[in-house]
Specification:
The complex is a heterodimer.
Chain A (H helix, E strand, L loop, with lengths): L3 E7 L14 H19 L4 E6 L6 E7 L2 H6 L12 H13 L7 E8 L7 H13 L3 E7 L4 H14 L6 E5 L5 H11 L36 H25 L5 H20 L3 H17 L5 H30 L6 H16 L1
Parallel strand pairs in A: 1-2, 1-4, 4-5, 5-6
Antiparallel strand pairs in A: 2-3
Chain B lengths: L21 E2 L10 E3 L23 E2 L5 E21 L8 E6 L15 E4 L10 E2 L8 E9 L7 E11 L32
Antiparallel strand pairs in B: 1-9, 2-4, 3-9, 4-7, 4-8, 4-9, 5-6, 5-8
The chains are: A alpha/beta, B mainly beta.
Organism (chain A): Paramecium octaurelia
InterPro entries (chain A): PSMD4, VWF_A
GO molecular function, one term (chain A): polyubiquitin modification-dependent protein binding
């Protein structure tokens, strides 16, 4: 448990009123702070946490790094949502607050909550990032809700230039998903932050936001949990082999040539499928498969069409079986009602075909 | 003109005290070597044995401006005699170095504090010119911090850093202690006890 001084930059701009993260982005930030308080202060008695309001006319330092959690939680009553987020000014103030921390032994960390588009240009951001990296400040960049492409790109460039080693994190929270769950899984998987023993540690496949990491190990970081990673890898490989055999058996003899062409692609597709859990991706994959199928037809189409459709159905079923398999394997608790209803919709669709 | 060859009697500051100085490469904890403001994380590759000091295939480049801080921890206490910095080429050579010792949690705020010793660096492309240090100030070193910068070149590129000195074969370790709640006192002879009165 590292000795840290973490300064949290809150986004109290008008954009935080947005309700795409329920009940609002501002509330999501508050919950996230609770999480960070647990992680930082409870893990080490001497760690400190500070607060900065990044929005409004002036960037305000609410709290210098302190280990008194009541004081931090009390600050929320004083805050109002106003103005726009001043990203670089807030970060500079945060680094200044860290520079003047009382206990120089604490490692420096800035946690930035971004809930509004960033006004600064990329060059300014890169410069700022390099300055922070130069002073050995770890950055946790958490994006609440804003999914504009340019905005995400700016954040990624900033993060690329500021990260040093593995202590910095970039977490993207999509509208609709639970911020605390997402944060908890990301923070829980990192070796820097460890969850309290009392809290439940959810072993989730990291969601889309952080990118598909360690996909061949089913999303488990082999450095942290080598046994689990090996088990996942073996299971995924077995599943791939099983599906390969199934495909081979189902198609008839004259179509074997065609099938051999399809298998490596399907195998590849299936393997990718196993890691990605979202339904939208499933549909794209099916379109991709259909497209490939239509491209590889050299023999008369009439014979092959019913077989292909059957193949499509079968692969669809297998894909859904895959998901179930994965969920079973991981004891996944993450069953959103939305996802379930979407799942049911797609099931009905395929049955109609 | 004949190149000056250092010898025991040449009187050059760089060579004095260096006859018994050994290359301290073996005492450097290479895994814990760190560098602030470098573009790529390759400072460990420029810490090499003295024989390889002229190799130019690895170098550390400064990122934002023309200064870097290199942190070199040792696995035992050493006495430093000479610090050798080789730059990649003349256009990216540093001209100033400040040395600090035994400081943890280093960042660029350190520069504002007074250094243990300050050096003027020359390009030193072949590694012949090592900087001799004031011996008395570098007696018990566990941790060497070098602030290297250039006032004219931007960025700077360093291809080798070497340290020469004398080992003490003593290392900082946790003391093995036993804490006693009730210390067992020896039997004391009351006639031999002397009482001091404190007024």
């Amino acid at each position: 448990m590292p000795l840290e001084a973490a300064v949290v930059v809150l986004d109290n701009s008008e954009f935080s009123r947005n309700g795409d993260l329920e009940p609002s982005r501002w509330n999501a930030q508050q919950e996230a702070i609770e999480l960070y308080i647990n992680v930082v202060i409870d893990s080490n008695m001497e760690s400190g946490m500070g607060l900065i309001l990044g929005g409004g006319k002036q960037v305000r330092l609410l709290m210098t790094p302190t280990n008194d959690r009541d004081q931090i939680q009390g600050q929320f009553h004083k805050t109002r949502l106003e103005g726009n987020l001043q990203f670089s000014v807030a970060l500079q103030q945060a680094s200044l607050a860290l520079k003047h921390r009382i206990n120089k032994q604490q490692h420096q960390r800035i946690v930035v909550f971004v809930a509004s588009p960033i006004e600064e240009e990329v060059d300014t951001l890169v410069n700022l990032a390099k300055r922070l990296k130069k002073n050995n400040i770890a950055i946790d960049l958490i994006n609440f809700g804003e999914q504009n492409e340019d905005h995400l790109k700016k954040l990624e460039i900033f993060f690329e230039n500021v990260k040093k080693g593995s202590t910095s994190k970039f977490i993207n929270i999509y509208p609709g998903m639970s911020a605390t769950e997402k944060l908890f899984s990301s923070l829980g998987n990192s070796s820097d932050f460890q969850a309290e023993p009392g809290q439940q540690q959810q072993e989730q496949v990291p969601q889309q936001g952080t990118g598909v990491q360690f996909s061949e190990y089913g999303g488990i970081d082999p450095n942290i949990d080598p046994e689990m990673a090996m088990i996942m890898k073996m299971s995924l490989e077995e599943e791939a082999q099983r599906q390969q055999q199934q495909l081979a058996q189902q198609l008839q003899q004259p179509q074997q040539q065609q099938q051999q062409q399809l298998q490596p692609q399907q195998q590849q597709l299936i393997q990718e499928e196993k890691v990605e859990n979202t339904i939208e991706e499933d549909n794209d994959e099916l379109f991709e498969q259909a497209r490939l199928l239509s491209m590889h037809i050299e023999q008369p189409q009439q014979q092959n069409q019913p077989a292909q459709e059957q193949q499509k159905q079968d692969t669809q079923k297998q894909l859904f079986q895959d998901q179930n398999f994965l969920e079973e394997l991981l004891d996944d608790v993450n069953k959103d009602e939305e996802q379930e209803s979407l799942l049911k919709k797609d099931d009905d669709k395929s049955k109609k075909d | 003109m004949q190149q000056h060859q250092h010898g025991p009697n040449c009187g050059c500051a760089e060579y004095m005290f260096n006859e018994d100085a050994d290359d301290l490469y073996g005492q450097i904890e290479i895994d814990k070597v760190d560098c602030l403001n470098e573009t790529a994380q390759n400072v460990k590759q420029i810490i090499r044995p003295e024989i390889e000091k002229t190799k130019k295939n690895h170098f550390v480049q400064s990122d934002l401006d023309s200064e870097i801080i290199v942190i070199i921890p040792f696995n035992e206490t050493v006495r430093i005699r000479q610090i050798n910095v080789v730059s990649l080429n003349e256009e990216s050579a540093p001209n100033l170095m400040k040395a600090y010792i035994n400081i943890s949690n280093v960042d660029f705020g350190l520069i504002e504090t007074p250094c243990v010793e300050q050096f003027v660096l020359s390009p030193n492309l072949d590694g012949q010119f090592g900087n001799a240090v004031k011996v008395s100030k570098f007696e018990n070193v566990n941790n060497l911090i070098l602030y290297i910068k250039s006032t004219v070149n931007d960025p700077i590129r360093i291809s080798y850093i070497g340290v020469k000195g004398i080992r003490t074969f003593q290392s900082k370790q946790l003391a093995n202690t036993i804490y006693e709640l009730n210390p067992l006192a020896k039997q004391v002879d009351p006639d031999k006890v002397v009482f001091d009165s404190v007024c």
